[in-house]
Queue: 3 jobs
Job 1
Amino acid sequence: MLVTSKELLLDAQKNDYAVGAFNTNNLEITHAIVRAAEAKRAPILIQISAGAMKYAGVEFITMIVAKAAREATIPVAIHLDHGPDFKTVMVALRAGFTSIMRDASSLPFDENVAEVRKVVEACHALGIPVEAEIGTLGGVEEHVVVSERDALMSDPDECARFAEAGGFDFLAVAIGNAHGFYKGEPKLDFDRLAAIRSKVSIPLVLHGASGIPDHQITRAVESGICKINIDTEIRDAMIRTIQKFTQENPNQIDPRKVLAPAIDAMQAVVERKIEIFRSAGRA
Ligand code: 13P
């Protein structure tokens, strides 16, 4: 069933698990995500970025995801990932998204607040929840000196002021996480996460979770993360499986035969993540 994300994240917060938010670009990825969630009886968010909207066409991709969500026997929210501006948010709302992220984290604090408030006013009028972000994701490399590393991450006091001033529903934090695969083993800053958790009462979101070891994900969930974003590991499973299949079957030109094992591989990734996030059986 198609739902908004608010009740999903509040239930996760209350019951100490995290809802998986998985990115899609097309039919095959969407099928893989929904099949995994059905198999594990887990609530999920399916995320569409501005890049995915451009690639697939907003109406096309939203119709695919909305159809899958409506037919699913588990709750599914359609979420805008990293909404880059107000216009993209409006386009997503009109298309039927049920959850919005406005990412203005690259702007100074006051401008981030102003941008987010604008989106919150529009979305809340429609009953749609909003995620916002503070701090800098990625680029937080091991060789960066500690003071610089600290400066890029979300500051707990600033998080509290941001949540208070922004009036949004979920907060995405930068605690050493980055998008894409990590160069070495990532080290999430759990002291920082605990400090943020103690000052902010709304659900917290972890972006860039592909490649973060399971034990750190478990600890993040135990420390109050309620939504976890996965994109890269799904893409990796898809493309590596297609590469292997086409190498082994160079004469196979039926896309359905080439893509079927890739869907299975993506489903397996999503099922594993759902287990680690402790959202299996929560639907
Ligand atoms: P990964 O690509 O690292 O899994 O991150 C996904 C994400 O955070 C999307 O917002």
Job 2
Amino acid sequence: MKVLLIGSGGREHALAWKLVQSEHVTDLVCAPGNAGIVDIAACADVRADDMVGLIALIQRDAYDFVIIGPEQPLALGLVDVLQEMGVKVFGPTEAAAQLESSKSFTKAFCKRHNIPTADFGTFSDLKEAKAFLKTMTAPYVLKADGLAAGKGVVIAQTLKEANAELEEFFSGKYGKASETVVIEEFMTGQEVSFFALSDGKTGLPLIGAQDHKRAYDGDKGPNTGGMGAYSPAPVFTQEIMQTVLETIIQPTIDGMHNEGHPFVGVLFAGLMLTQDGPKLIEYNVRFGDPECQVLMRRLQSDLMELLIAAEAGQLDKASPPVWFDDPVVNIVLATKGYPGDYKKGSEIKGLEKALERKGVTVFHAGTKSKDGKILANGGRVLNITAQANTLESAVETAYRFIDEDIDWPEGFCRRDIAHHALKE
Ligand code: AMP
Ligand code: GLY
């Protein structure tokens, strides 16, 4: 099959790395890709949010199958357009992608279908929102309704701070995305990212992972897209996973189907493991980044086969994926300043030494190559993944490679990835 993969992050490099190992993939093109992907697949210079450019590319080059990595093209309805063109595509329609693109949609959906999640209110009026806040207790959780690159959530410690944030939201902090605001009850517990494939009717569980959303060690600093991940997460037991499938995942797939928006794609549940059981924090409608990188390294089965079955509505006949038992960790290297302002163009040296490090695979994110050099070209730049027979050893292997081989003074990483699991 001639396959087009859309995106340019570490997630897409990991997907590409796995896809080129599939016997079903004869030809892989990535749009736009990055300086790592270009070593294993052809790259087409079309951005993931350039709908017109993507449609023109797909019309011109006749792909057998299209895989969409990031959320923007899904929220913009690329799947709907491709389906009308008769192109096979893996990902949810615009209506089904609302599970990520509208938090108010998802919260109301959960309520209709009795899916456990934090209590909430939805507001498009500042006065009403402030009145509701008064009825809640600290800490206050405020969320922009629409897509805000993982930055539209604020946890305020005092009512004063929460009110000030609300004012900012309603005066256009995130443009259209914060014209509607969701206010939620604060939940406590450990967070887990859980992934399942859906073909519209059947859910096929993948595995869980833990992400690290804050920029700095000790879960301090601003929220980011994710600074590192590992799998398996010991807190996410088989029993909890079964509960999640029964109380969250399958009711969601059934509910979307019954409401006329069958969900086809990756259902990524952000979960809080509370004392009252697992609850949904939010849905994403795609693989997580940096979680996908650890999932792809643990996946033993053919990824393409699973995606073909999901697109064809045949997950009920698919054999469950097989996973490597050995833990995998992924440590994100970001440009200093991320998630705020940062400079582009600094040179990264030493990546080729990964070949001599057993268990290490590097996935690029914001990189570009120029005159044979690898340059930083974004906030999150590299993903250093390592696999070993224990999580401790995987973590040690990854940090040793970063400290001894990588030469990039303009970059930084968290030093405590997997701390939750290592403590236990
Ligand atoms: P989200 O983008 O909805 O996943 O939120 C980003 C982060 O904010 C989550 O990973 C949690 O750490 C935190 N968060 C979101 N909603 C809640 C909540 N209701 N209670 C506690 N923490 C939350
Ligand atoms: N790692 C969280 C996300 O991909 O949204």
Job 3
Amino acid sequence: MSLFPDVVSKNASSIISPPLPDSLPEFDSPLRLGILASGSGSNMEAIAQAIQSGWLQAQIQVVIYNNPQAHVAQRAQQWDIPSMLLNHRHFASREALDEQIIQTLQAYEVDWVIMAGWMRRVTEVLIGAFPRRVLNIHPSLLPSFPGIRAVEQALQAGAKVAGCTVHYVELEVDSGPIVMQAAVPVLPGDTPETLQARIQQQEHRIYPVAIALAATVPPK
Ligand code: GAR
């Protein structure tokens, strides 16, 4: 049982971090993003909305998805964004899939690789092709709860604060320097679904900002 359930629920929104800027940095030309997604694509859509509203100066060049059922394909179509299915089952190795991803990203002249619910491990092949230009979003406050079912992990551990992290991608899963995080309270009675929904609201807020932030840092 939570010690201060009323205080926590009353102040729930004040626990949320961080306040976001009204405007984001401007670049010489729009950032050219390639999105990798395996699922619903709500983060892809949040990025597309941030671009459409003029907040994020970027363009989604292509959406690559690995799962034929992924709803992100429909969302890409609605946004008139080219999409490409690269089904991991049709590739002999992770490296072979990454090679094809790189070819596709290069064909669409992508500068930044944005993993938005991409549920495949990436290899040195992809990371090496886009040094310090691959970002991922993960539904936990890393370094806590890396890997799959991060939201369930947080609930099972009895965490009182959960959240999401945007980080540069390195070889080890859900590792790499952190660009931005947002925290949400874990409320009494939360299920994986209710907590996931609260975390996703924050993902949609911070991912566009984190992309802009990362793009102001020169690659190593
Ligand atoms: C997001 O919650 C993201 O944090 C998670 O997948 C979801 C994709 O949602 N990613 C991971 O768990 C990666 N380790 P979306 O398809 O609606 O953007």
